[in-house]
Design goal:
The chain is α+β, with helices and mostly antiparallel strands. It folds into 3 domains: 107 residues; 64 residues; 186 residues, Heat Shock Protein 90 (2-Layer Sandwich), CATH 3.30.565.10. The protein is built from 9 helices and 10 strands. The strands form 3 sheets. A 6-stranded mixed sheet has the order 8-9-7-6-4-10. A two-stranded antiparallel ribbon has the order 1-2. A two-stranded antiparallel sheet has the order 3-5. A hairpin with a 5-residue loop joins strand 8 and strand 9. Helix 1 packs antiparallel against helix 2, helix 3 packs antiparallel against helix 4 and helix 4 packs across helix 5.
């Protein structure tokens, strides 16, 4: 939910007041330090005895005069000097309080003006983002409900053939997942992860492959599955993992050249479960591997293919997939070269002692091991 508008207005003032107080206290501390140094110097100089010579003469007898010479210290003068220095220091501190506070507020008003404006802009942007999100959620809920109802009615048609029934069932599952996503956005303003049960990652890869069979067929693509038959992942969110994996497959279906194959595989390595999506698309040069996960980033081939899509509605799939993988304590890696296709892999921990170093490089971007390469062509089956 968005913060209350009043809190957005008061936050800049609060920050400014705190910083102004810091400046004021700093000024007072400097004045105090200077005063202490001055007192110390005064006391040090006053403690240096400055001897004075006094002479006296007395006539004790005819022709006899006694001259007495005595040195008298200046302890009384030293004590008076210390007293005077301390008094002047107190006066200086008293007089400097008001200028110090004034200087602190003046400097804060000048220096922190930009901070006030920046914080106000952040608050306004957050309010606008929440308003836009509320509108999107409202606009999505109605058509999703209509689509779900129509798909249920279509699925109940006894005249449907098996292939059409499978496509409708895949569409229903996708609509259900989208409805859950919309509910998360309405409740939390973000995609929520509920790690409450055990997930069969192998079954989910096959299910996602079946969902994408229709779009792949429309582009003359072949979706293949490979890997283990069953693979349990503890404390996972089934819908979130399906969303992350579905985004990877959808990207491959959109960008892979017509007539090529997309392979969805899974397995286990060093306490990690992995699910990889390999395509025969244009690939991504190494210098851009980090950027592909940035929000809104799209490669040249992606831009050429999706010119009809609004810019603010694209470039989120990989970002969301990475966030959902990391929310499970996992990772999303890329293995790609320009002109040689791409492999995106989701890694989820299945053992309590699983460590990142066993499966990914230190950059947490590239895989250290590539178990999907050990799969034989004979292992791959049509989705």
């Amino acid at each position: 939910m968005s913060p209350h508008p009043t809190s957005q207005r008061t936050r800049p003032t609060s920050v400014r007041n705190r910083l102004a107080m810091v400046l004021t206290l700093t000024t007072l501390a400097i004045v105090t330090l200077v005063g202490l140094v001055a007192v110390a110097l005064s006391i040090w100089r006053a403690d240096d005895p400055v001897p004075t010579t006094q002479a006296g003469a007395a006539r004790v007898a005819d022709g006899i005069t006694v001259v007495v010479v005595a040195e008298e210290g200046t302890q009384d003068a030293a004590a008076q000097a210390r007293h005077d220095a301390l008094g002047w220091m107190l006066v200086a501190l008293g007089v400097s309080v008001v200028p110090a506070m004034a200087a602190g507020w003046i400097v804060s008003a000048r220096v922190l003006g930009d901070v006030d404006k920046a914080l106000a802009d952040v608050g306004a942007a957050e309010h606008e983002r929440q308003r836009f999100l509320d509108e999107v959620v409202h606009e999505l809920r109605t058509p999703l409900a209509v689509a779900g109802t129509n798909l249920e009615l279509a699925a109940d048609d006894p005249t449907l053939d098996a292939d059409t029934g499978r496509l409708i069932d895949a569409a229903r599952r996708a609509a259900d997942r989208m409805r859950r996503t919309v509910d998360d956005l309405a409740a939390h303003g973000r995609l929520a992860v509920h790690r409450s049960g055990t997930l069969d990652l192998a079954a989910e890869t096959r299910s996602v492959a079946a969902e994408q069979a229709g779009p792949a067929r429309a582009r003359s693509l072949h979706i293949l599955t490979a890997g283990v038959v069953a693979l349990e992942v503890p404390a996972a969110d089934r819908a979130a993992v399906r969303t992350a994996l579905g985004n990877l497959v959808a990207n491959a279906v959109r960008l892979a050249p017509s007539g090529s194959a997309i392979t969805i595989s899974c397995g286990e390595h060093a306490g990690w479960a992995w699910a990889a999506v390999a395509d025969e698309g244009p690939g991504i040069p190494a210098r851009l591997h980090e950027r592909v996960f940035e929000r809104g980033w799209r490669g040249r081939h992606d831009r050429d293919r999706d010119r009809s899509v609004a810019p603010d509605q694209r470039g989120l799939g990989l970002t969301i997939s990475r966030q959902l993988a990391e929310a499970h304590g996992g990772l999303l890696t890329i293995d790609s070269d320009e002109g040689a296709g791409s492999v995106f892999a989701i890694w989820l921990p299945v053992a309590p002692d699983a460590t990142d170093d066993d499966v990914v490089d230190s950059d947490h971007l590239h895989p250290r091991v590539r178990p999907w390469r050990s799969l034989q062509p004979a292992d791959r089956q049509p989705a």
